[in-house]
């Protein structure tokens, strides 16, 4: 694939393979990118850059990434790179995603897409100005499990949606983990709650886009572990269609992995077990008309492979990804509103370390 974007359309591609460069020597790169790339022939992971070139080389060698650049800017200047996977800490997502877009690269950025709504709106504007794709790596939304849940809800299986809940728990015990840093965009809401908000908006929108909008954060509690960094968040929401919602997300305590969603309707209820990692296990339970039915969707392909394939289609064919600005701007607006209601500052109010690059 060449870099002759003017001659070959808005996507800037001439072939069917998207060459991706990685910003950040993060552990998530293996799970979210290099492993699923083996299942997606439309992409190749071509290069990596990190703040420490030696660390970048070691990480690239472990993951089988052939090229290493001495800096993020050097990778962005590489004409052999078509798109960038941004795996730096949350507080730096906006900065490096914008630089990548202005360098002519498409962007797949780890969740949450930015530190706050203002940054998300700016990123959307830059993507529009540059004609490049900015896509949040909200991988569960690309899996057939989400499609099946939406289909059941759209079919009126449980009637009109009246209430939705999402519960997510994953402990981060080490106080040195960057997810406990306010400056780097840490917090349970940012790390886990953003999944909950995205899932509930997606489920609520099964009957129409307007129903997905969250119009009010009625109540929010967010006890902290470190200064201004929430260890747990419990928020009550109101949707445009009249439904109520609740999200509970915690990085403190046990069980080590507990993820489930609930949708209650006028005719019954639907529960989803493990919507974040359905490739490990999943189950949908519907209780309606006096009957209870259970089903699962095939575990493979993984959420990450589904996401990567969709991103490649967006770059090569211009197919709109599910998690572009229409998705991520309103989601970040809800995140900001929850923090404000809980009495905590939104993320991004204090400057992040410009060279940190490690995430889980």
TrEMBL record:
Keywords: Oxidoreductase. This is Gfo/Idh/MocA family protein. InterPro entries: Gfo/Idh/MocA-like_OxRdtase_N, Gfo/Idh/MocA_domain, GFO_IDH_MocA-like_dom, NAD(P)-bd_dom_sf. Residues 148-270 form the GFO/IDH/MocA-like oxidoreductase domain. Residues 18-134 form the Gfo/Idh/MocA-like oxidoreductase N-terminal domain. It comes from Pseudonocardia aurantiaca. The keyword Oxidoreductase applies. Belongs to the Gfo/Idh/MocA family.
